[in-house]
Design goal:
Layout: H1 3-23, H2 27-51, H3 56-80, H4 83-104, H5 113-132, H6 137-194
């Protein structure tokens, strides 16, 4: 494995280690662990690009690590601050449905600006809540709204791509039929042109 892969694997290991810490109720330590996991997320991509060792396996491992961290962080917040789900479940449920649909549509592109903003806001909310022990509902609402916008953008792009592909396939399927129709219509014309004209000797009184 490359250095970038080791950094990504370290993020998965951090998530595993933080679970008993969260169960013990040490929110500050969990917050510090989330910071360390976030650093590995920043470093692994930079290292992969600088060393030229980007790979499909590394991208899949990075996606798994990100999802594991995100789901675990949500569970830790619920474990340490149960009032979050009790008060904000409607917007959380709606955003969760949109995010699930975006995953079915192919997932949020890491280069997508709206996805980066949503991820940053969710990260800030998690760190603020874990490190301070305070729950700010407005901060969570803004982060979830950004995630909903990012999910809708992903779904819209996927839908547009599907429609464009269907339109192109219809165009390609109709083109041979049109050419065949033209070739059939020219055959009688050719037979007319090549047919011999009657001579004067062939005419009868």
């Amino acid at each position: 494995m490359s250095l970038a892969d080791w950094l990504t694997s370290a993020r998965v290991l951090i998530v595993i280690v933080l679970w008993p810490v969260a169960v013990a109720g040490a929110g500050v330590l969990v917050g510090l662990g989330v910071i360390a996991a976030g650093l590995t997320d920043v470093l692994d991509g930079n290292v992969a690009r600088r060393t030229g060792l980007q790979s499909a396996r590394g991208a899949r491992l990075d996606a798994v690590a990100d999802i594991a961290l995100m789901i675990s962080a949500a569970a830790w917040l619920e474990l340490l601050h149960p009032q979050i789900a009790a008060e904000g479940w409607p917007i959380m449920a709606a955003t969760g449905v949109l995010y699930g649909l975006s995953l079915l549509a192919g997932g949020v592109d890491s280069r997508q600006l709206s996805g980066q903003v949503a991820g940053g806001l969710l990260y800030v909310f998690a760190l603020f809540t874990l490190l301070t022990g305070l729950y700010e509902a407005l901060l969570l609402d803004v982060a979830l709204l950004a995630l909903a916008v990012s999910s809708l953008e992903t779904i819209f792009k996927a839908t547009t791509t599907i429609h464009a592909s269907a339109r192109d396939s219809r165009t390609r399927s109709q083109a041979p039929q049109a050419l065949k129709g033209v070739s059939r219509s020219t055959a009688p014309l050719a037979s007319i042109v090549t047919s011999p004209t009657p001579s004067a000797t062939d005419s009868r009184p």
